Amino acid sequence: MSYQAPVKDMLFVLNELAGLPDVAALPGFEDAQPETVHAVLEESARFNREVIAPLNVIGDRDPSAWREGKVTTSPGFGNAFRQFGEGGWQGVPHPLEFGGQGLPKLVATACTEMLNAANLSFALCPLLTDGAIEALMTAGSDEQKARYVPKLISGEWTGTMNLTEPQAGSDLALVRTRAEPQGDGSFKLFGTKIFITYGEHDMAANIVHFVLARTPGAPEGVKGISLFVVPKFLVNADGSLGERNDVHCVSIEHKLGIKASPTAVLQYGDQGGAIGHLIGEEHHGLEYMFIMMNAARFAVGTQGVGVADRAYQKAAAYAKDRVQSRPVDGTARQAVAIIHHPDVRRMLLTMRALTEGARALSYYAAGLADRAHASPDEATRRHCLALYEFLVPIVKGWGTELSVEVASLGIQVHGGMGFIEETGAAQYYRDARILPIYEGTTAIQANDLVGRKTLRDGGAIAKTLLAQIAEVEVELAARAASGGDAATFEAMRKHLAAGREALANVVEFVVSQGEPDPNAVFAGSVSYLKLAGIVLGGWQMARALLVADAKRASDPAFFAAKIATAAFFASQVLSQAPGIEASIVETVGDDHWLTLPVDAF
Amino acid sequence: MSYQAPVKDMLFVLNELAGLPDVAALPGFEDAQPETVHAVLEESARFNREVIAPLNVIGDRDPSAWREGKVTTSPGFGNAFRQFGEGGWQGVPHPLEFGGQGLPKLVATACTEMLNAANLSFALCPLLTDGAIEALMTAGSDEQKARYVPKLISGEWTGTMNLTEPQAGSDLALVRTRAEPQGDGSFKLFGTKIFITYGEHDMAANIVHFVLARTPGAPEGVKGISLFVVPKFLVNADGSLGERNDVHCVSIEHKLGIKASPTAVLQYGDQGGAIGHLIGEEHHGLEYMFIMMNAARFAVGTQGVGVADRAYQKAAAYAKDRVQSRPVDGTARQAVAIIHHPDVRRMLLTMRALTEGARALSYYAAGLADRAHASPDEATRRHCLALYEFLVPIVKGWGTELSVEVASLGIQVHGGMGFIEETGAAQYYRDARILPIYEGTTAIQANDLVGRKTLRDGGAIAKTLLAQIAEVEVELAARAASGGDAATFEAMRKHLAAGREALANVVEFVVSQGEPDPNAVFAGSVSYLKLAGIVLGGWQMARALLVADAKRASDPAFFAAKIATAAFFASQVLSQAPGIEASIVETVGDDHWLTLPVDAF
Hints:
Two copies of one chain form a homodimer. Chain A is built from 20 helices and twelve strands. Chain A is of the alpha+beta class and 601 residues long. Chain A has three domains: 7-154, Acyl-CoA dehydrogenase/oxidase, N-terminal domain (Butyryl-Coa Dehydrogenase, subunit A, domain 1), CATH 1.10.540.10; 158-284, Beta Barrel (Butyryl-CoA Dehydrogenase, subunit A, domain 2); 442-601. In chain A, strands 3, 4, 5, 6, 7, 10, 11 and 12 form an eight-stranded mixed β-sheet that branches. In chain A, helix 1 packs across helix 10 and helix 6 (105-118) runs antiparallel to helix 10. The longest helix of chain A has 37 residues, at 285-321. The two termini of chain A are 46 Å apart. At the A-B interface, helix 9, helix 10, helix 11, helix 12 and helix 13 of A face helix 9, helix 10, helix 11, helix 12 and helix 13 of B. Chains A, B: It holds the Pfam family Acyl-CoA_dh_N.
């Protein structure tokens, strides 16, 4: 079974929840009209179904392979990447003047979800290239933009992010790679970078590495890091490829999942120094890298949604097909398809509710990014940017943690067959496991949520969102009072209100205790992130419920399913919120477990 | 790093929570005195550390391999199994008269946990053999016992359970394998069995298959199934091996994990019929198989505890070693070992609290099984058996589901290194994933908990346990009132009471709604199982807290760690209970998601 992109749900979320009509009214996004967007999504769905998705299993069974410094990617990947570039898919959100399509991030996010659902390993190459383009557009010189961006958008070249070193993972203060000025504006780089996704491959003519390194005499810590562009092949003034640069892939990793995606160890400068050029200003590298990272973090959240949906589709298909046991309510005397068993339904709806909630939240965030970028009003731009930046760690952290849970449930639905590799469900479980780790672990996202996104503004943005949730509760109460399936709306209102109150209490706890009791606050940071994901995802599902109710008659089957999924989210997912609150706010810094001596572990 | 069995915690649980002193006072268990048990556990720890644990990675990298009907096990496995048999480890809980050690199940459970922590794939062979021995001891004739049991205990032969067929997984009513009587008391079997653990291997001279099959004219469904013993090599009257029987391994599976354990497809009767003999009475096969299955289900719960502990040990060692980032409370200006970061602590304590809670609950259950077996008083035997049988699906379902969560956290603690196979953390994540599936999926355990264990007695046994929990709450309140760290005891009391009330409400819901609204009750069955695990595990941790407090001075470091772990369990795990209750009791059979048409998925 190939992957069928849920175009109908994507359009519903884009139009009804994430504000595509408003975004399409912003200057520069005039092309994003309903018919165009619909056509783009349908064509993306076709391309991913026919070209990309069939390579997913192939890549898992026949991974990228390293030999003498060269990496051969899985069969079919190179050809598919050529089609990807020629189809203009790399350029969806990038500027028209450099060959992109100039569409909103909102539309690009739906395309990104499809690509990742189709093939997580394949999708990583464009994902990193997107980050490279974004860094160049923000911090690159005009000459650098002209030199690199069109080739990155066309798919002739690809991009990478080089942060990690053996001793510097989450902690970039420990980066040691050196960049020595050559007096002609260029630098020579020396050092080892690890975990470089598509750091070497055979799918494009050149690879453009974006590398964190220290210049001589730079301050210690993150304030002494600069960003360099280091192409695999040097680029001549006319744009043609020159000499091979001194950056070499010395090995690739043997991984649990995403096996088709080569994870490279790159050695810089073993033969005299890898030639690179500074991007932007010296010592501002981390700032620029954060541009790439924020884009990449958001995209990784979308990867979570994509792989979760793929796992759901596979499990649902199996549950409709596999016949086993009679129904518990005695409505049949023969064994039935297992989708009729209540627990199988609970598992499938858990997968679906989490996926739809995370999709809605991530698209909602993308719509804010578009407003932050294109709104004519500066105050609106600033406000939308703050909201978007608050949501990024949640989209990334929650969207990826839940993808592991969903993929695990996908195996469980298959029973013993799920454990057999040939079935395919296990690949999602293996592939998804990297998502809560790379581009910043969930703990790093949670640190960001606590530190930069909550403590820095005293919880102001969080409270803006809480107030918006309270407004939806009022709508739900009004709808419940009007009769007709009132219990559904009242149940959602009750759980959403309890979730909002739990989140409000936690925000208060973070803001008030961040200074006096940082250990307690950071001990609860991942739980805070999870709570925020559940409540904000539940908010989007509540909004979906109200729209589905109002539009029910226009597409009864689709909206009945949306109502069912929203109701499930309320009673089965949102109901966890108060328990998470308790686990956070009851912790204090002198709790036994926070002060337990290291030897006790 | 090899595996270090937590002998001290095991002895604490055995002696202080699971009632080893009482069990050792029962007739037949006189040998289970403290010094003996301590010595057995220390020797088991040494054997598993030195001989079995080092083969775990080897088996994963060089799995069992099939060729022309024969299975070659991983390097070193055959030799280790010989030592296992010679050391008497297969015989720990089995009768002295057949060559066993006659020790209580309680002691055997600690040994089983060690073996599984050391090497899940290896441990499966003895696990299945234990089930075979138990079935023979219960339902085999004296001649069958004499023929098979001593060789199974000595490790000369091994045993298997043959239930599953391609169309009959969870639903054994669909079993089709035929057994035709030959007139001489023997039968010829014809059919295909799949997912047969150690169904073929090279570690023992003979393999004794226990096979579910139908005799001619047998009723449809589970009431027409009989149990047969079918040895790989026929056994002559003098016990020597005769001809090769007509059961052949046609392939083994390519699996996500436990790769060293061969999972066989067995073909019976392709060359004229596999010769077998009936065990016990015709048509009672499922009943006898349940004896094996109950033993195996309990043991699989122990597998969950074992692999969880192994994952914890590896993650804790890494967290002490890996230096990254400065502490959030500003107590150091340099990067520190990550175990000092609050979120890493939260992950490690989650792993540890779940593992210790599940260990305590499973050993507690084993102690009940010993009383059910050996108590001189029949009423006590019956009562303990009912309690044990109530706990089996919880030990299996909860203990295995949490092992997946713990193994996943183990990867997360390692960050990017966790995703690299060489690190080893990923193996636990892959291996553990089978545990909530085989020997009955979590849904099957939950059906058992709802149907046979709760509805059948109107919740009587559940209420007995709830009353025992309430007694511990009284002790906690008294301890809190006596001052000195009162907050810890009051927090545990509060969360335990809330958990007990949640569980009581769910039991009431199951009992009252099981008849009128079975779909709603079974929709919540897995959540009920999870809730029961959390509350009953929390109950054991509360008991541990009280003992640790009273004995604190005798071993300050050990008991301080136990108190910290118990406190963590209260605020971080037990606190989830009320949310789970809501997700169960608010579901009704006409909920949108229970009645959503199949096409909507």
